[in-house]
Amino acid sequence: MLQYFDSHCHIRNETVKLPDGIGVIDNAAKISDWNSVINFSQNNLNAYGAIGIHPWYVSDLPDNWDSLMYELLVQFPNLTIGEIGLDKKHPEFVRQLNIFVRQLELAKVLKCGVHIHCFGAWDIMREILIKQDCNALPFVLFHRFNGVISDWIKWENVFFSYSPVKKFRRILLTPQNRILLETDSDNAANIVEWTDVVVNESKILKENFVNNALRMLNNGQIA
Ligand SMILES: [Zn+2]
Questions:
Q1: How many whole angstroms from 184 Cα to the centroid of ligand 1?
Q2: How does pLDDT run across 164-217, given as a tens digit for each residue?
Q3: 11 C-alpha to center of ligand 1: Å?
């Protein structure tokens, strides 16, 4: 039985065994992570994998990065796409945009959920997701969500994920059937403490975090 779910982490030691009762979504940041995400998610029953190019790592990609990614997504249909997105604090914003849009195109073709990082670029994020019809994707997870909830509430496929924070204002405004928790770390066991803190502060039922994650994955028909 799953008791906790870390909806966004980066476990780069693929020999780690996931503790009982914890589910995770393990995200890649760059091409060199992809194999480890695949191995870790294949070797642990409650681990789900996402491969992608993070906006911090858009330099020095091989020309065929997108076909490499496409082939793996076809070969391993339980994979989703992440971590992808836009970050105004990081260089090469135009390149970030191109690579992000290309990955959204792959998501549409493959009917695949996406895990998004967005910092300082919410206006353009919204513009792109509308233009790319991303409200039709199986799911859109905003990791470390720091945008405006009311901008996205009508998108029924959007889920809001939070890593440890001191202020709970946004968490308390988030619909209880679309909230997720994450460690954004390499140690999924940290999700236990963070979940217990949120349950205490918010009175959200603990099982919501597991149920929401599984429902989200299930929209993408990931078993
Ligand atoms: Zn991350």
A1: 5
A2: 998 899 999 999 999 999 999 999 999 999 999 999 999 899 999 999 999 999
A3: 10
Count how many domains the chain has.
1
CB atoms within 10 A of CB 174: 20
What is the Cα–Cα distance from 102 to 97, expressed in whole angstroms? 9
- The residue among 14, 27, 78, 75 whose CA lies nearest residue 54 is 27
The CATH number given to whatever domain includes residue 141 is: 3.20.20.140
Q: Side-chain half-sphere of 11: how many Cα atoms within 13 Å?
A: 30
CA of 191 to the centre of ligand 1 (A): 14
What is the DSSP secondary-structure string of 17-82?
PPPTTEEEEEE-SSGGGHHHHHHHHHHSTTEEEEE---GGG-TT--TTHHHHHHHHHHHSTT-EEE
List pLDDT tens digits, range 13-59: 888 899 999 999 999 999 999 999 999 999 999 999 999 999 999 99
Q: How far is the CA of 197 from the centre of ligand 1 (A)?
A: 21
Q: What is the pLDDT of residues 77-90, one digit of tens each?
A: 999 999 999 999 99
Question: What is the residue range of 155's domain?
Answer: 4-219
